Amino acid sequence: MGLPIDILKLLTGQTIEWDRIEFKKGWNPEPILHTICAFANDINNWGGGYIIVGVEEKNGRPILPPIGLELDTIDAIQKSLQELCHKIQPNYFPVTIPTMVEGKWIFVIWVAGGDNRPYKAPKLLRKGGQAFHYVRRGSVTKIAKDDVSRQLFELAAKVPFDDRINHHASIDDINFQLIRSFLRKVNSDLYANSETIQFKDLCRQMQIVRGPDENL
After folding, report:
1. DSSP line for 105-123
2. Beta strand 131-137 with 120-122: parallel, antiparallel or unpaired?
C-alpha cells in the first residue's frame, strides 16, 4: 500500500498544512493514540492528518534526513497499533504505510476524518483508564472540554458534503486513467501499483470509495 501523495512533499509541508502533521522520533503509544483520536474527530473538517514515526522534529518541523526505524521495530509498531486502536471508541483503524526516505525506514499513519465521530480514547493505557474526546487545536492535541466538546457533537451530526457517500454513483463512474494521471502528477507510490491491483482496491486505498463490494 502507498500514499496517494508524494511522501517527500508531505515531509516538507508542500501538500499538507503543518498543523495536520505530527512527527515522532519513536513509538510513544499514549500521545499517538490521542492524536489518532483527534485527527479522526477532525473538528476543523480538514480531512484528518498524518503521524510520521521515525522523524525528529524541532518547533513542529521535521529534521531531515530522518532518524529512521529498524524493520523489526516497524513490525512491532504495526502489531501494537492494532491493539491500540481497539481502545478507541468506536473502533477506528487508520491507514499505515512503512516507506523509505533517504535510505531510512519511516512509518506513516494516515488518519482520515472518521465516519463515526465523535471518537474517544483513554487518557492512560492502564486498565480502567478514563476515556476522553480529543481534538486538534493548531498543532496541539487536546482533550475536548465544554464548548469544544459540544461543538464536536454538533459537527458529528453534520457530515460535510464532500465526505458523503453518493449512493447514486458507482465505481464505474470513476475514470481510471484520470486517477493514474493524478497519481503520476503527485509522484505517488500508488502509481506504480495502479496497473497491478484491482481498481476497487486502488480506490479504497485512496479513500474515494467506501462500503461493501456489492455497493460499489
Report:
1. EEEEEEEPPPTT---EEES
2. antiparallel
Shared domain for 48 and 151, answered yes or no, is yes
> Which grid cell sits at 126?
492502564
- Would you call 96 helix, strand, or coil by DSSP? strand
Q: Which three cell numbers stand for residue 40?
A: 479522526
Q: How far apart are CA 126 and CA 16, in angstroms?
A: 34
Contact 65, 102 (CB under 8 A): yes
Cell numbers describing residue 197: 491491483
pLDDT tens-digit series, residues 152-179: 888 877 666 666 667 567 888 899 999 9
What is the pTM for the complete model shown?
0.80
- Predicted confidence (pLDDT) per residue in 85-115, tens digit: 999 999 999 989 999 999 999 999 999 888 8
Residues 24 and 108 both lie in one domain: yes
Which domain, by its residues, includes 177?
Answer: 171-215
Q: Examine the domain organization and report whether 156 and 175 are in the same domain.
A: no
Q: How far apart (Å, rounded) are the C-alpha atoms in residues 110 and 83?
A: 17
Q: Do 109 and 142 have their domain in common? A: yes
